[in-house]
Specification:
Elements: E1 4-7, H1 15-26, E2 31-34, E3 39-44, H2 48-58, E4 67-69, H3 76-79, E5 80-81, H4 85-94, E6 99-105, E7 120-124, H5 129-138, E8 142-143, H6 158-165, E9 171-174, E10 185-188, E11 195-198, H7 204-211, E12 215-216, E13 242-245, H8 249-261, E14 266-270, E15 281-284, H9 291-306, E16 312-316, H10 324-334
Helix pairs in contact: 1-5, 9-10
Bound molecules: adenosine monophosphate and magnesium ion.
Amino acid sequence: METEQISVDNHQDNDKNYRRAVDILTSGGVVAFPTETVYGLGALATDEQAVRKIFEAKGRPSDNPLIVHIGQQEEVHKYATGITEDGEKLMATFWPGSLTLIFEKIPGIIAPSVTPGVETVAIRMPDHPVALALLQTLHGPLAAPSANRSGKPSPTEAAHVFEDLQGRIPLILDGGQTGVGVESTVLDMTTNPPTILRPGGVTREMIEEVIGPVKAESKAPGEQAPRSPGMKYMHYAPEAPLFVIEPDATIIGEAIAALHVEGKRVAVIGPDDLTIPTADWYFALGPRHNNEAMAAHLYRALRQCDLTAADVILGVETDLTGVGAAVMNRLTKAADGKRYMS
Ligand code: AMP
Ligand code: MG
């Protein structure tokens, strides 16, 4: 299969491009498209055969549920039930936006493969002109995980999608670099209080300001059926081992010196303003404490590390304010929890 890439620029008339994408989707195919978080790989969420193609193209385990993307808030009532007042408040406040809400599902509408083994459905309305135009032209729900091969970082540029899924999908809508850069916050509204299953661009503080205290669940150790099935899967890990390290140029310099003695080449991912002249590669994410910039550039930097001959990657930690919590969540997972110890 040949993979076509179409640039959908804000400033041009894209009706034809969206219709082309919708033709593919309504005839049971998959299309990659930008959202404000990362690129998604979409299929019509009511079409079981189409949804299976997502799992096939990504190599994703078939029991890991998908998020349903909608183009209008009211559509949520077609697929979900038991929506509380808090749920309504969150949608009114954060949609369109990078908050995924898990509700009880109305049976028989969304294809079984979207919600394997669960009675709930994860829904969000993305805040990206291309995603919204596509959904509104389609007039239907799109099941869409991130548009990477399973085991790779989520794509934040069309080129990342092409790298991973070239020859496996018919179309990529190229809308440039995504804004947030990490996946949406996932909030389970079926528990009391609601539970954050995955941190993202919409932070715990932002949610609590609207509905009061929520729980945060980073892992479900020993739980037989993890609440978020995605939690039990291997997370992306770069080819070289990654260690989280303090934002201290002296400590990082000493770490690199020690690694060099062992004959290891070192790539560093960190803020713009740390001067580490001995690093063999330095991938800068943005100004220090600018967690939005860190989030926006983290996945690209991880992909860049995989293109180097680094033996070790040092990932400089950032503070946990705002989207910093999501950055550290993804970085810690990619490091498999490892910290650099001198
Ligand atoms: P991705 O599509 O790769 O961004 O992953 C979506 C995340 O949301 C995964 O961690 C899923 O396990 C989680 N998820 C999706 N639907 C549900 C659901 N109904 N219940 C719990 N977690 C879900
Ligand atoms: Mg993903």
